[in-house]
Amino acid sequence: MQIYFAAPLFSEAELLYNEHVVEKIRQSFPNIDVFLPQEQADINDKQSYADSKMIAQLDTDALLDSNMLVAVLDGLSIDPGVASEIGIAYQAGIPIIGLYTDSRQQGATNQQKLDALQELAESQFSYINLYTVGLIKLNGTVVDSINQLIENIETYQK
Q1: Strand 140-143's sheet: what is its strand order?
Q2: In the chain, what is the straight-line distance between the N-terminal and C-terminal CA atoms, in Å?
Q3: How many Å apart are CA 89 and CA 75, to the nearest integer?
Q4: pTM of this prediction?
Q5: pLDDT by position in tens, the chain (length 158)
Q6: Rounded to whole angstroms, how far apart are CA atoms 56 and 43?
Q7: DSSP category for residue 157
């Protein structure tokens, strides 16, 4: 089995987070290959050069060769590259697990937070693009922790 790990990879924090999550997957499932784009020096060494066609071809081929997509959804909005990879996986029928750990989604039963929704610009909750999330849910699920991610990968192993 191969998992394609889609995530932003442009800051040190993003790179370290991706490494952390992928290491947890690799430790939990030694028999699964994880394709992590940031490990592909040919196209993702930012000191080097790769044009848009090279990046699109390598990543798309790797995604289409995978049995599952894990997509990190955190950030101000879903990373545009990750959103594109979600669309490709959906169209190809590849199962998708979205990892959405934004803490602002907590407190959905807190009445004060719910009341604040009636006041302009006072939402206490995070925003996530519903079209992109819909593609994930039509062919997979969204989880809110690395532990839930590992549990859900396990269900696809069976």
Answers
A1: 33-35, 2-6, 68-72, 96-99, 140-143
A2: 12
A3: 21
A4: 0.92
A5: 999 999 999 999 999 999 999 999 999 999 999 999 999 876 666 677 888 898 899 999 999 999 999 999 999 999 999 999 999 999 999 999 999 999 888 888 999 999 999 999 999 888 999 999 999 999 999 999 999 999 999 998 76
A6: 10
A7: H
